[in-house]
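stage 2 :: seqdesign
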């Protein structure tokens, strides 16, 4: 007999995803893997003080705000994850050692220690697959409508990590498909007369980390990239608006290129 997997999301808890602007006309899907610091009430913050869920280890600070604003500016559909990455990281392969982290940025996560198979599967079934199924469905609707959609994932990163200062203002992550990433990098490097520090596959490499865009777009031959913005630039309303406006202006031009919207496998 198979394992009976308990749904960890109960009545009154948030949904495992949020869809914005479901009827958006732009040929692109925006996603935000780490949009929320939420935890189901019954899980009691997995042994951490509630204040920890306001910090970067729990979510990508500012990314949800930028995604919402960009969705509105572009008239694009967006899918936001509903729960903290400390429960399970939806941008990692289930079973990866960092998928359900026992430690994050030197903080031990008591509720993640020595989880059994049934407990791990409950996390996957409750939080991971519902989000990914919604991303898959949203892309399918856009592709059937036409033209071939692009997929853009919005993230944020800390100004420093492990004592190392991260000087980039924004980074573009990509793996094999350059169609979206390269023109985006070129145009970002001209923002504010070239005064911003723009990283290519920084502060993370899209060739090493990018489960969501690889799974939903890379394999399918859809143009894709991830955008990383430094958190102290988007942790205010004004900052989030500036970067949403900046990205919208650039992406409107790139997404207007008909040659972008076709299936190509690299």
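stage 2 :: out
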């Amino acid at each position: 007999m198979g394992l009976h997997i308990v749904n960890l999301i109960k009545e009154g808890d948030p949904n495992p995803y949020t869809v914005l602007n479901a009827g958006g006309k732009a040929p692109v899907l925006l996603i935000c893997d780490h949009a929320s610091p939420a935890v189901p009430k019954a899980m009691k913050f997995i042994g951490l003080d509630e204040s920890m869920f306001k910090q970067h280890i729990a979510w990508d600070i500012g990314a949800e705000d930028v995604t919402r604003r960009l969705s509105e500016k572009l008239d694009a559909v967006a899918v936001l994850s509903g729960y903290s990455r400390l429960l399970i990281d939806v941008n990692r392969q289930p079973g990866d050692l960092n998928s359900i982290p026992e430690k994050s940025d030197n903080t031990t996560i008591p509720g993640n220690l020595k989880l059994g198979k049934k407990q791990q599967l409950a996390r996957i079934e409750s939080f991971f697959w519902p989000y990914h199924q919604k991303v898959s469905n949203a892309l399918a609707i856009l592709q059937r409508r036409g033209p071939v959609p692009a997929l853009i994932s919005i993230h944020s990163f800390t100004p420093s990590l492990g004592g190392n200062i991260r000087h980039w203002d924004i980074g573009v992550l990509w793996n094999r498909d350059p169609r979206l990433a390269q023109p985006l990098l070129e145009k970002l490097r001209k923002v504010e007369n070239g005064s911003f520090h723009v990283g290519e596959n920084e502060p993370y490499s899209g060739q090493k980390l990018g489960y969501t865009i690889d799974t939903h777009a890379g394999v399918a031959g859809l143009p894709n990239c991830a955008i990383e913005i430094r958190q102290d630039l988007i942790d205010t309303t004004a900052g989030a608006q500036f970067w949403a406006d900046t990205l919208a202006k650039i992406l409107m031009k790139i997404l207007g290129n008909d040659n972008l919207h076709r299936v190509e496998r690299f």
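stage 3 :: structure notes
- The helical segments are 63-74, 117-145, 181-188, 211-218, 231-234, 237-255.
- The first helix runs from residue 63 to 74.
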